[in-house]
Each structure stands twice: as structure tokens, then as C-alpha cells.
Known about the structure:
This protein is α+β, with helices and mostly antiparallel strands. It folds into three domains: 2-113, no CATH class; 147-268, no CATH class; 273-360, no CATH class. It contains 13 helices and eleven strands. The protein has helices at residues 2-10, 13-39, 42-59, 92-99, 105-112, 116-125, 133-142, 220-225, 258-268, 286-299, 305-320, 326-338, 344-359, and strands spanning 62-73, 79-89, 150-157, 162-172, 175-180, 186-191, 197-206, 233-234, 243-250, 254-257, 271-272. A hairpin with a 2-residue loop joins β4 and β5. α11 (305-320) runs parallel beside α13 (344-359). The termini are far apart.
Amino acid sequence: MRKIWNGLRYGDFQTRKSIGSVIGFSVAAAVCIVIAGLRGQIMLFVVAMILAVIAIIISQTFTLEDEDFVAEVNHQGEKESVRAVMAQKKSAAARRNAHGTEPGHMEDEISEHMTDKQKERREKENTYQRYSEQELKRVKRRYHVRKDHRPIMIDYSKSYRIKECPAFIWRVHNKVYLLLIEKEPRRICISRDLIRHMGYQPGVRVNMEDEYVAFRKENLVTNVFREYLPDYTESRNHNDPLRMKNLYTIYPDIWLTNRSAYAVMDLLCLHFMPKDKITESEQLNGFFKRIYAANILYRDRVYSIMEYKDSIEQALRDMCYAKMPEREFNTTLEQLVKGRLISDEYANHYREIRRKHVGD
């Protein structure tokens, strides 16, 4: 009785739903039995039996487990702990032991007729099925995930044997932690001193049939991390069925999706400057390259429109007050306009700011 009360009072939505369903059907069955006895209605008694059976079936699908957690803080600021109760769904093995049957025996028969490639694909699709809301909370507690963690998507890492894996990233002093949500969770730790900047890997060609297979099945993990999947563009080659994605990298060889880059840059305060013919050109100064890099982040949906605007305006303001020849200043603005990185109106506006600064 204590477990039921604590489950209703302190449990999560799933716990309350499970207990409430059993109580609801049980009460309804009891009421129907009483009414059937008073009125002598056999059909109402049959309905009561059906409701009772439903309550029993639901009660066999979960167990109530004790768990320590802080329920509330009292007026003196002291934490009051209780033995909370959480509903944990029974595994297939547990249900088999309880009833002597295997719910998935039909699936096993089907899998016998599948090819190795089909079995591998099916296994990938079921990677995150074991993660319920409560299980994910337990994993976070087990690996001491901080409250300021960020969800991200790691596309690939050869060093850590990672492929298309959702993860949580957080920082503790000089260490960066990554909790990989794989079939079995795994945590890795990297020194912050080794992660010095954000790299760029554009135009990675992929076959969409093989991309993020595990995210084609609905479950808690796929719903939480779906927004961090990469964006794809068509190949530049005519009639090429492959697609392309732009990835961002951190030490040693961890490739992140474009939708995850901002969270990592913000958390670790990383500088981004891609290495290509533009950024390595000696004919373009640092201010042009800053705006060029910001434009890449905007096109890849790493920056929002406001973040992109703020980044450009900050670079242009810095250029206005920088000690540089007027010819270089005007040439840089012309290059930015020609490269369609800023408009003529922007260029004229900052020329005026520069003129006032030099005049002062």
C-alpha cells in the first residue's frame, strides 16, 4: 500500500498512469459487481469480470521499484528524502517466466527467415527500444550527468568506434564528458585542453538508405534527438543519387552534425574557422574571414538569423575601429559586397561610422 501511495504522490507520469489504470479498472469492476448483485443482472457481472481481467493484465506489465530521490525542500531548506516508487515495465523474459509463454515467439520465427543484412538492419532499428523515460533517468544518474548538459548527435568517430550516436555532453572543470546513448550506454572523457577549436568537414557524400537507420522507429530516444539529425543537400554531380551533409569536428576525430555544432561551440567556447582556399588566402584579411565563417554557420543552420546578424555587425564594428589603412578598409567592404556577404547599405553604414571615428 505504501508503494502505491508513494507512486501516486511522487512518481512520474508513466508511474501514475500505470497505477491509476489498475485502480480505475478494479474500482469499476467492483462497482459493477455490486450493482449486478443488487439488480440481478448477469450481463453486468460479465462486464465486471472483463474489467477485472483487464486490471490484472495491466498489473502484470510493470513492477513498482523503490528508488531514493529528493521529494521536496522544507521551510528550513533541508532536503526531505522519501522512498519513491517508479513503475518499471517488465522485460519479455520476466513476462515469460511469469506466464510460461514468450510474447515475441512469432517475431523469432519471422527472424529465422531473414537474411543477415535484414537482421542487422532490424537490430539497428531496435537499438534504442530499451530506453524508457525512467531508464534514461537512471543512466543519467549512474554516469553523473550534470544538469547543464547538452544533447547532441555524433555522426562518426573512428577513434572511439562511434557511428550515428545520440549523446549528452557536459563539462566539469578541465574535463569534457560524453555519454553515448548506444545499445549499452558508454561514457568517454576528453581533456578540454585538447579541444582547441571547431573543425569543418563539408560535402560528405552519403546514401540515404543507410543514414540513421535507428531513427526510423519511434521511441523516446529518437523523439528527443531527432532535431539534431543532420541536414542533407543534393549532390553537385548531375544524376548522382547520393546526398551530402556538412559535419563539424572536435578532437580527436569526433564528427558532429550541423544541428549539434552550436551546443558544443557554446559549451566549450570554441572558435570556428574552416580551412579552405578562402581562409588560407593572403589577399583577404581576418575581418573578411570572420564574416565568411559566420556565413557558413548560418547556411548550415548552426546560427540563427539573429546570431548571424550579431556576428557580422560585431566584426564590422571591430573593423571600423581597427588600426588599418583606409584603402584596406574600403577594399574589404567591397569584397564583402561582391561576395554577397553584406549589402551595399551595410557597407555605406559602416563607412560612415569609420569616417566619424577617423575624423575624431
